[in-house]
Amino acid sequence: MKKLNRAILIFVILLMVGAGSLTMLNTANSLEIIANPTNWLVVISLFFLIIAFTATYEALDAMKKLIARKDGKEIVESLEEEKEEEKDWVDGLLHKLTDAVPVENEEEVATDHVYDGIMELDNNLPPWWKAGFYLSIVFAVIYLLRFHVFQSAPLSEEAFKIEMAEAEIAKAEYLKTAANLVDESSVTLLTENSRLVEGGKIFAKNCAVCHAIDGGGGVGPNFTDDYWIHGADIKDVFATIKYGVPAKGMISWKDQLNAGEMQEVASYILSLVGTTPANPKEPQGVLTKPSLEENVAPADSSATAPSDSIEDITAISAL
Which residues, 6+ apart, have CB-to-CB distance to 244 below 8 Å? Predict the structure, then answer.
């Protein structure tokens, strides 16, 4: 049983060392290691393997003793010597870690203070605890010099701001290539001819039945004038397409179109403003001049040059 307890103690110490090692990694890697169920399975398996190994060892040791009793006194003495050597080594290690006084020698550290029948002892602090205390003092001195005296590294608040700024830059770079991650709060107006043409095709396929192929309006409102019912900003148009207006028969398109496609068709609709449809519907809504310069997406160097007229896009989208 003592061997089993020692094995568990050693396992706990190793586990604490492993947990301390995690603090030396960055937050993302530490969380990934902790959240990975495979790692926990390995730790639990290792724990039970240690218990199984210790139990097996004790069983074999008991068998050796049983055989020794039958074979003679010399073997018994040899086993007892091995046991004493092992005991001395383990006990010496535990004594170095705890610096505890054996129970039989408690009178050496006894004090005169007795409370409720319990005698107070004056044991030394464990060496591992004192080592941790001294290391914390060394760490505090290094931390003070590095962060507050020489200022060779940013403080926590400054490091947080730097990491947030880097994250925003990385996010912006990622969003440039992730068209389907836009929503009504981040959508921008597209100006590339290639994507406006795609928006025209989507408009001709899904929207022309209510708004006419040239955007002049029909069951739905006219998109070529400056009157808008639900807002003339790219974010407003995108949100209207995404969520629809069920009360007026406008369905939600978020299940039929992805975010990139809704951005393309919303940008195409705004490109129709100022054109001349064949049969324009009367103005509806509030006079709101659409801003075609705000919230414009960065130019795509790989896109083709804009066409000469909206009619060209309409013609292509009608194919």
Answer: 250, 251, 252, 253
Residue 190: other Cβ atoms inside 10 A: 26
**Which alpha helices (H) appear in 37-189, and where do they start and end?**
37-71, 73-98, 127-143, 156-176
Report DSSP letters for 95-138, one per residue.
HHHH-PPPGGGGGGGEEEEEETTEEEE-PPPPHHHHHHHHHHHH
pLDDT of residue 251: 93
Alpha-carbon gap, residue 160 to 10, rounded angstroms: 37
Closest CA to 173 of 301, 298, 294, 26: 298
Distance from C-alpha of 39 to C-alpha of 71, rounded to nearest angstrom: 47
Contacts of 117 (CB under 8 A, 6+ apart): none
Can you read off the two tokens belonging to residue 136?
């914390």
Residue among 249, 258, 238, 243 nearest 209 (CA): 249
Residue 47 corresponds to which amino acid?
F
User: Kind and range of the H or E element at 271?
Assistant: helix 259-271
Domain boundaries, the chain: 2-98, 180-317
CB 303 within 8 A of CB 195: yes
- Give kind and range of the element (H or E) at residue 286: strand 286-287
What's the CA gap between 64 and 57, in Å, rounded?
10
* Tens-digit pLDDT profile for residues 98-137: 777 777 788 888 888 888 888 888 888 888 888 889 999 9
Q: Note the Cα 157 to chain centre separation in Å.
A: 20
Homologous superfamily of domain range 180-317: Cytochrome c-like domain (1.10.760.10)
